[in-house]
């Protein structure tokens, strides 16, 4: 179990910890709106924990916060990379730490870390080293594994190999996630240990922050899925297909990290003639619903006793969130 609860710590220890607010939850739950409202109320700045919003030119598909939605609140880790650049949890943790140390805390503000990527949030809360930065990459081993996994048969063989040496990792890594399968195998071949053992040991860390962790959810699953479908239709009406076409014409390939995001990978396939646009849209909706389900499962399994679930459609949502912050003595 994670040992990050802060409301039961002695006051002198809590005062040594820097304050942080976390707003997480599934896609389409309304995290952006709540984060801005809370930041206004507590004197905060928003730290985006979304894996696609870091990319310039990827606005519609990432549901990037618009300037008029920011409410004058400073946002960090948005539009900082080109779509041709790699982005992963280790890089996120580094950039998030720099933003807090250099720009947010020195101004006396509280970071409001907002997003649906649980791994990213956890890496910052506990300073966790996940598989992208736990040991030096072995270029020779990685090249061999990448070449082996270039065919469907090779990918299947790698998955079976990982299942035999590290079954716990297979519970969390999708068979089609080539990058993570290869990294897990590389770690095993380099260290002789399952990568899942390392990740589990990292979870025993104590957080250096005095934080409150909100999970914003739409309890009615059918309602959440309806919101997701509505959002996908809105993205298409706003020009998501044209956004993907521009990226494709600019030289962003479908194998790049940026194009693995839901909405981008499906429409890229449509532009390549592998399916129709209508089929791609239905795939986006289905994949987004599955993603939201996985997000909720992740947060339920997070097992942090300081975690607070909020109903996204509660008319007194902001008031209740502020009351929780006062009860936890994060604000006066």
Task: Briefly summarize what is shown.
By secondary structure, the protein is α/β, with parallel strands linked by helices.
- The CATH class assignment of the largest domain is Alpha Beta
Helix proportion: 40-55%
Low-pLDDT runs: 1-14
Mean model confidence by pLDDT: 89
Number of helices: 14
CATH architecture assignment of the largest domain: 3-Layer(aba) Sandwich
Q: How would you classify the helix and strand content by structural class?
A: alpha/beta
Strand percentage, roughly?
5-15%
Q: In order across it, which strands form the biggest sheet? A: 3-2-4-1-5-6
Largest sheet: 6 strands, parallel
**How many strand segments?**
6
Amino-to-carboxy terminus distance: 30 Å
The shape, in one word, is globular
- Tell me the CATH topology of the largest domain: Rossmann fold
Structure description:
The protein is α/β, with parallel strands linked by helices and 332 residues long. The chain folds into two domains: 11-128 and 203-327, Rossmann fold, CATH 3.40.50.300; 139-201, Histone, subunit A, CATH 1.10.20. It has 14 helices and six strands. Strands 3-2-4-1-5-6 form a six-stranded parallel β-sheet, with helices on both faces. The longest helix is centred in the last third of the chain and has 24 residues, at 277-300. The two termini are 30 Å apart.
């Amino acid at each position: 179990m994670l040992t990050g609860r802060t409301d039961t710590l002695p006051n002198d220890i809590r005062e040594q910890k820097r304050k942080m607010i976390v707003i997480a939850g599934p896609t389409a739950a309304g995290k952006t709106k709540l984060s801005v409202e809370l930041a206004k109320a507590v004197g905060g700045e928003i730290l985006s924990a979304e894996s696609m919003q870091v990319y310039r030119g990827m606005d519609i598909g990432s549901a990037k916060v618009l300037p008029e939605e920011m409410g004058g609140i400073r946002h960090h880790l948005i539009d900082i990379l080109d779509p041709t650049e790699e982005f992963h949890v280790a890089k996120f943790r580094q950039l998030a730490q720099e933003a807090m140390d250099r720009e947010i805390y020195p101004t006396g503000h509280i970071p409001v870390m907002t997003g649906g990527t649980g791994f990213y949030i956890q890496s910052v809360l506990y300073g966790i080293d996940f598989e992208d930065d736990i040991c030096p990459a072995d270029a020779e081993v990685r090249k061999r594994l990448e070449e082996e996994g270039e065919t469907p048969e090779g990918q299947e063989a790698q998955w079976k190999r990982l299942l035999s040496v590290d079954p716990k990792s297979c519970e969390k890594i999708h068979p089609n996630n080539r990058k993570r399968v290869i990294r897990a195998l590389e770690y095993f071949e380099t260290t002789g240990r399952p990568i899942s053992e390392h990740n589990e040991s990292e979870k025993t860390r104590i957080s250096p922050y005095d934080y409150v962790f909100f999970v914003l959810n739409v309890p009615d699953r059918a309602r959440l899925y309806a919101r997701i479908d509505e959002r996908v239709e809105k993205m298409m009406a706003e020009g998501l297909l044209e956004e993907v076409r521009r990226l494709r014409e600019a030289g962003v390939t479908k194998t790049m990290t940026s194009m693995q995001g839901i909405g981008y990978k499906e429409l890229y396939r449509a532009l390549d003639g592998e399916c129709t646009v209508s089929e791609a849209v239905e795939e986006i909706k289905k994949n987004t619903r599955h993603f939201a389900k996985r997000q909720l499962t992740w947060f339920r399994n997070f097992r942090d006793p300081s975690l607070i679930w909020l109903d996204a459609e509660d008319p007194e949502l902001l008031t209740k969130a502020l009351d929780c912050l006062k009860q936890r003595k994060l604000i006066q």
